[in-house]
Amino acid sequence: MAYRIDNAIVKKDRDGRITLIDPENVFKDEDAFIAIKSDDLITIQLLINGILSNDFQNWRELGNIPENEPLKGLFVRLGYSKEDISKLLKEF
């Protein structure tokens, strides 16, 4: 079961004007938005899918995680290969 976070692109031009690029019109009735870097969004989606697949044993084996470690580095420590991550991303 894959979980998908609805998203669109928020683009800022040279004058600081913001444009919402939402080809699927998901946000047509929304008044407020937040912006998240695309790497962080992908990491959040992968984390949610890891939790939904009950991957808790591997999480416990990580032990203490240094605060300065990038979140996306956890997937390598959890044993995910590039192919595994690619497969998870294709589910979106």
For the biggest β-sheet, the strand order reads 1-2
Secondary-structure-based class equals mainly alpha
Largest sheet: 2 strands, antiparallel
**Unreliable residue runs:** none
Q: From N to C, what is the helix and strand string? A: EEHHHH
Give the total of beta strands: 2
Strand content: 5-15%
- Distance, first to last CA: 11 Å
Number of helices: 4
Radius of gyration, whole Å: 16 Å
What is the overall pLDDT average?
Answer: 78
- Proportion in helices: 25-40%
Spatial shape: elongated
Task: Tell me what you see in this structure.
The chain is mainly α. It is built from 4 helices and 2 strands; from the N terminus they run ββαααα. The chain starts with 8 loop residues before the first strand and ends with a helix. It has a two-stranded antiparallel sheet with strand order 1-2. The longest helix has 15 residues, at 38-52.
Summarize the structure.
It is built from four helices and two strands, in the order E-E-H-H-H-H. With 92 residues, it is mainly α. The chain has a two-stranded antiparallel ribbon.
Features:
92 residues, mainly alpha, two-stranded antiparallel ribbon
